[in-house]
Write a structure and sequence with these properties.
11 helices; flat; Tetracycline Repressor, domain 2; 2 domains; Arc Repressor Mutant, subunit A; about 220 residues; about 0% strand
């Protein structure tokens, strides 16, 4: 049946990826299975393996596909601002569609769109006079921060209207015991942590400050 499906002009690698995008948006990452993608295409799951080696390969291809449209355009006047602008752009893009960030595999992977963007970011860091290994580590650290932030932020955005996350009754009771004085002192930050943009900017600024120290050592 898979060989017959391969000869079907309507079943292509691009069609498989597009169908996977539909499933991801509708079902989320947990519902993205080879069987679900095949059902979207009205074929049997084995037919998909002509076009993607396995589910992991499908997820990388889908991630790269969904990153289309995100372009990094460094200005070049200040590497810190270039890194900051690219990080914000990446965050916005990762939040533009459901569960994009969950498609990213652990470790190094190769995908055309993604590698092109990575090359731009590494160029900014290398031009800032970071050593090659430090530039790679800086990229990985910043990307990991934005990626994991976007996943958690996406979860928060998916909460029902009016639901506010924070300390529950048990947590508030523990603070009142006096056993955690420093935590109690900063409890207001948990009750009113400020905007999510402010929190993201704080973490990003801390990362960039660390990168500045590496540049100073170079």
């Amino acid at each position: 049946m898979a060989r017959l499906a391969r000869s079907n002009p309507n079943l292509t690698r691009e069609a498989v990826i597009e169908a996977a995008a539909v499933v991801l948006e509708r079902e989320g990452h947990a519902g993205l299975t080879m069987r679900a993608v095949a059902a979207e295409l009205k074929v049997q799951a084995p037919a998909l393996y002509w076009y993607v080696a396995n589910k992991g390969a499908l997820e990388v291809a889908l991630y790269d596909h969904l990153m289309t449209g995100l372009e990094f355009a460094p200005v070049g006047d200040d590497w810190r601002e270039d890194v900051r602008r690219m990080a914000w752009a990446l965050r916005r893009h990762l939040l533009s569609r459901r569960d994009i960030g969950r498609l990213v595999p652990n470790g190094f992977f190769v995908a055309p769109n993604t590698m092109a963007m990575m090359d731009v970011v590494l160029g900014v860091l290398l031009d800032a006079r970071l050593k090659p290994r430090d530039a790679f580590y800086a990229f990985a650290t910043c990307f990991g921060y934005v990626l994991n932030w976007s996943i958690r932020e996406g979860e928060l955005r998916a909460q029902p209207e009016g639901v506010r996350l924070g300390l529950d009754a048990e947590g508030r009771a523990l603070l009142k015991t006096g056993a955690y004085p420093r935590l109690t002192t900063t409890a207001k930050a948990f009750a009113d942590p400020g905007s999510i943009d402010e929190q993201f900017a704080f973490g990003l600024d801390c990362l960039i400050s660390g990168f500045e120290r590496l540049v100073a050592k170079a």
